[in-house]
Amino acid sequence: DGIELLTHIKKKNKDIPVIIISGHANIEMAIKSLKSGAFEFLEKPFEEERLMNFVKRAEENFNLKSQNKELETKLFHSYDLIGNSQNIEKIREQIQKLSNSESRIFIYGPTGSGKELIARKLHKLSKRNKGPFIVLNGALLDVKKYEQELFGEEKENGSISYGSLEKASGGTLLVDEISEIPLETQSKILRVLIDQKFKRINSNHDIKVNVRIICTSSKNIKHEIQLGNFREDLFHRLNVFQIDIDPLNNRIEDIPLLIDYFSKKISQNYNLKSLQIDKNNPYLINHFWPGNVRELRNLIERIAILANNDQGKISTIIKESLKQENNEMVKDNNLSVTLKEAREIFEKEYLTTQLKKFGGNISKTAKFVGMERSALHRKLKGLGVKDLN
Asked: What are the strands of the beta sheet with 212-217, ordered from one edge?
């Protein structure tokens, strides 16, 4: 019995595409076959070309699933959301609350801050976690290929190029940097969200949408709407829930944890002894981190490859990598002021950095710098340093 054999095959390997061919077919048998996991159902007699198209599509589908699994294994199990800042703790709570919903989510944050990582965590904890996780990067696509990448295309030779919406069926579609997608394509995405269906290019056949959409942006979308670069109606459809991730320089207390974490991970990847990096190195604490967590991770990988755990080399690599013109300007400016003014500049920079390191906690900062809490309050007020909370 074909259905029984199909069930047996799927128990052994659910990803193997199975095409059932029958000379005694009826609608009920076809439906039962597809519900049991058949890739396609073909009734005898059939054209050879039709069977070969089914085989080709089955092969493409199998390869796509294999690639997705490989990517998922590498990325899902490679990095975690590290930090104990208020911002990261809040994001962890949001992930737990939102992962089981089907709501669309908009993730905001600067480049390299971890927006895709958050999206993957949401997918991994969702009911769709056995489905694919597909990324469509709005910033990297050729303008002429947006719709092909989204909706797919049926070609003249009968072959099919599947779009991201179809590849993500049953799973999650991450539209990265959605603000970069042209207005004309935005209007078609809006129509898909309203109708819950779409057509491939060169096709009249409707395909139902079964994906959860998560979007990210490093731009202020409301500002883009005012400039006329983004549709307000599409924004409201996509922005059901919002997650904001702060730049790394706003959560300095996370830097030592990230250094420890990446040091261990990268050491394991390169089969090296555990890296020993001074987490209180002033260059690490005072750097602006324009590339955010990605920049920090790249720095640690550079250290792992070049320094061979030599502390002198590690310090040199950190210093050379994180040199900033504004640091040199501060030094030059300090030479042109009085001793009292220079001391105030130093105290303001030092105490602001320590406050950031302890997430704005006055008590912890006071204990670390060796001052009474009330005295630190007075000093901060005198220096014009605002409460970071």
From this structure: 133-137, 172-176, 212-217, 105-108, 241-244
Distance between CA atoms of 212 and 124, rounded to whole angstroms? 13
274 vs 243, residue with greater confidence: 243
Domains of the chain: 2-62 (3.40.50.2300), 79-246 (3.40.50.300), 248-323 (1.10.8.60), 325-389 (1.10.10.60)
Query: What is the C-alpha radius of gyration for the chain, rounded to an integer number of angstroms?
Result: 27
Cβ-in-10-Å burial (0-12, 13-18, 19+) of 219 comes to middle
| Closest to 304 measured CA to CA, from 371, 245, 259, 349 | 259
Tally of CB atoms within 10 A around 94: 18
- CA-to-CA distance for 307 and 314, rounded, in angstroms? 6
Start-to-end Cα distance in the chain:
69
Q: Residue 40 — φ and ψ, nearest 5°?
A: -150, 160
Query: Among 126, 214, 225, which residue's Cα sits nearest to residue 174?
Result: 214
Structure token digits, residue 383: 């220096």
pLDDT tens per residue, range 322-378: 875 344 434 444 455 566 666 777 777 778 877 877 778 888 888 887 778 888 888
What are the tokens at 143? 């303008």
* Nearby residues of 381 by Cβ (< 8 Å), 6 or more positions away: none
pTM over 0.90: no
Whether the bond between 45 and the residue before it is cis, its omega within 30 degrees of 0, is yes
Burial of 48 (C-beta count, 10 Å sphere; 0-12/13-18/19+): exposed
3-state SS track over 284-308: HHHCCCCCHHHHHHHHHHHHHHHCC
